[in-house]
Design goal:
two-stranded antiparallel ribbon; alpha+beta; AbrB/MazE/SpoVT family DNA-binding domain-containing protein; Pemi-like Protein 1, Chain: D; SpoVT-AbrB_dom
């Protein structure tokens, strides 16, 4: 797909066609990351940081309480 850049203040801007925005599920609030590679650049949405759900955190805590000392002792071997 070809597109052009346009002057925008002291920089340049590139439009993103509606069908591409829809496929990528992005809007005007989406943060984008630009990677420069092989004489070109790639633009992709920044993934939101995933959080651990409460059940998984509870599982980790319970596992550490039950087996934590044993696991730490194995590290010292």
């Amino acid at each position: 797909m070809a597109t052009k850049i346009h002057p925008y203040g002291g920089t340049y801007a590139m439009t993103i066609p509606a069908h591409v925005r829809k496929i990528l599920d992005i809007d005007e609030d989406t943060e984008l990351e630009i990677d420069i590679q092989d004489g070109g650049f790639f633009v992709k949405p920044v993934k939101e940081h995933q959080t651990l759900d409460d059940d998984f955190l509870k599982f980790l805590k319970e596992t550490d309480e039950k087996y934590g000392e044993t696991m730490r002792n194995l590290v010292d071997r």
